[in-house]
Specification:
Layout: E1 7-14, E2 18-22, H1 25-47, E3 59-61, E4 64-66, H2 68-90, H3 96-125, H4 130-136, H5 141-160, E5 164-168, E6 171-179, H6 195-203
Antiparallel strand pairs: 1-6, 2-5, 3-4
Length: 204
């Protein structure tokens, strides 16, 4: 007996490998950014912030000197590092085009922010413009060491940290697939009797 009902066959669907990028910069950049955002906000809360006099007062907290302007720069630097770290984290998606754009933009932001922090630390450390630096930032050599460390860490995270391409293969769930039923084989045809044999049979 031949059945014409469709039968269900379970097949395994294999998804193509997804490229996932990972780098230590994905951890270093957000960590540095969080520290500077928190420290800048603490300084602003300690001394206050008035848009009409951003260079006053000259205050100190935990041995580090600052002005409200310097505290706002620290918050801006921290936010840039957080944004750059978030873009680097976005490089772990399954879309390769989005991965490349996120990595490129994140690296640019982290590199520029790290270079700015490193340059500011060098300017303070070598006393390039002592009068202006004291008036604008109220920073000394201890602040310079902090900015130098942040700049070096940021640049190392952006330039020296390698990006590792780790493909992750994923297999989908077993999904039912409808397949067509097999076609029944045609029945063999019986041969027709020859005319001579039919005439001889009728005559007999």
């Amino acid at each position: 007996m031949t059945t014409t009902e469709a039968f269900t066959q379970r097949v395994e669907v294999t998804r193509p490998p997804a490229a996932r990028y990972w780098s230590p910069a994905q951890l270093i950049a957000p960590a540095v950014g969080f520290v500077f955002v928190a420290w800048g906000l603490i300084n602003i809360g300690h001394s206050g912030f008035h848009p009409e006099r951003v260079f006053q007062p000259h205050d100190a907290l935990a041995g580090l000197h600052y002005t409200p302007f310097l505290a706002s720069l620290e918050v801006g630097f921290g936010l840039a590092m957080l944004i750059g770290g978030a873009l680097l984290r976005a490089a772990r998606t399954r879309v390769r085009t989005l991965n490349g754009l996120a990595v490129g933009l994140g690296m640019v932001i982290v590199t520029l922010a790290g270079g700015a922090a490193l340059g500011l630390g060098i300017v303070i450390l070598v006393d390039a413009w002592p009068t202006q630096v004291h008036h604008w930032l109220n920073a000394d050599h201890r602040d310079a060491v902090l900015f130098l460390g942040a700049g070096v860490a940021s640049l190392c995270a952006a330039i020296a940290s390698p990006f590792v391409l780790a493909p992750a293969e994923g297999r989908g769930l077993l999904q039912p697939e409808q397949t067509a039923p097999p076609e029944p084989e045609p029945a063999p045809e019986s041969p027709e009797p020859e005319p001579e044999l039919v005439a001889a049979h009728d005559a007999g």
